[in-house]
Predict the 3D structure of the following.
Amino acid sequence: MRADQCSLISLHSNEDSKNSCAAHSSSPLSYLSLSIACIIMGIFAKPHPFYPPDLRLDDFHAMTVPASTIFGVGTTITTPQRTTPQRTIAPRTVSPPTRYDHHHHHHHQVFGASVLIIVLTLVKLSAHLSRTDRLIATWLAVTGAIHMVIEGYVVVTPDYYQHPSENYLSEAWKEYTKADSRYASRDSFVISMEAVTAFLVGPLCFVATHGILRNKPWRWALSLVVSVCQVYGDLLYYGTCFLEGFVHSRPEPLYFWVYFVLLNALWVVIPACVGAHAWRQLLKKDAKVVKRW
């Protein structure tokens, strides 16, 4: 009897403590404290233009370089410099208007000129190749540079959205993050995929370019491997966004259809064509081997 009474007393005491805790947690004072905390966080938090709007990014710094300059980097070689102040284009920001720095504009011109020189050099070195092989070698070199430099930067720079300087790569990723905020929130899949792309697929693109220029026997096998990796990674990139309901992209057509859909579609369509060409070349080579036997 004593044991039963003790257990009943213990049970009642536990229930009383739970009820008291629930009553305390649901008291008006707790709700008031939570509301005040949310208001304070909203006042001191810097708003950002990314989706979802409730994504928390500490110390966000608005863009200081116009988007037209970022994505017009290839055509800024002959573009005259502007002298009028440029206001930040990112909506919902509290940063004051900033003046565009022509020193960094000069860096953009150098970058565009460097890309043009690389392309022209590859075209000259591949003069002995067919037009198709020349285009493939150029594509592999350009996409390899994009993988290693641009995508590699976002992997090793998790705080790029905090940078106040007019760094071209930081500003470019701030603009693209409007189409996919998972780069800023450091989504595990996206960052892992970009790391593999930047530090494995990127160098393999240059190796494949070298193989095509030097007519190496393994050139088409490696080109096929690189193309499959690019298509596979891009399809996973699209698929994860689809399963999550595209909540990480702004709804405007520029950010969703142009940046997210069309820009990434290049790494599906072009590698698919390159892979198909590489596969046909491998079949031709196998046919020649069979005829010898």
